[in-house]
Design brief:
single chain; 176 residues; alpha+beta; five-stranded mixed barrel
Length: 176
């Protein structure tokens, strides 16, 4: 019986050490070395990081454009212009800077990218900034911690008609 408790104790200690190591890894500052687009970054010692809960228009025409157009974005040119300005904005906010990553329930997406909320040196969350500025929309397919807050930010950007929602075609807009 003593051997049984020793094995249980060893298992518990191992699990606690793994949890602790994961939290330390998440709280460490990491350097952003490259920005692929509005929702994907290259982070030192991590690799490609996809921002949890948001989706930004692609730099080139995409079959995903319909989501934005369905919500009332004026046209594809607006999407391309937004993709370019969002890339520049994200570069300005975080390229070459130390950020903190906060992981969600799923650590990787189907393309192998690390999924994370990205916290900037000034304490703001990059994922939120993109939504506040109307540079993307909420990725609703999966649940995540900040989903309700992100939806509120998206609705506010729609209402204020900023970013991709500038000149929103109200007849086309449908509540999500």
């Amino acid at each position: 019986m003593n051997r049984y408790y020793r094995h249980i104790w060893l298992l518990v200690v191992t699990i606690l050490l793994l949890i602790s190591a994961t939290n330390v890894h998440a709280n460490r500052q990491r350097l952003v070395t490259w920005v692929a687009d509005g929702d994907t970054l290259q982070v030192q010692a991590i690799g490609l990081v996809r921002l949890i809960g948001i989706d930004c228009p692609e730099k080139k025409e995409s079959d995903r454009d319909w989501k934005y157009l369905n919500m009332g974005c004026k046209n594809r040119k607006t999407l391309r212009d937004n993709a370019q300005s969002t890339l520049k904005r994200v570069i300005k906010l975080c390229k070459g800077k130390q950020v903190r990553l906060q992981f969600g329930n799923n650590k990787r997406d189907r393309y192998g990218r690390t999924l994370a909320y990205v916290w900037l040196p000034d304490g703001r969350m990059l994922n939120r900034i993109i939504l506040e500025e109307g540079r993307g929309l909420v990725y609703r397919r999966f649940d995540f911690s900040y989903k309700k807050n992100f939806i509120q930010l998206e609705k506010s950007a729609l209402k204020r008609q900023v970013g991709i929602w500038h000149g929103l075609r109200m007849k086309k807009y449908r509540k999500r």
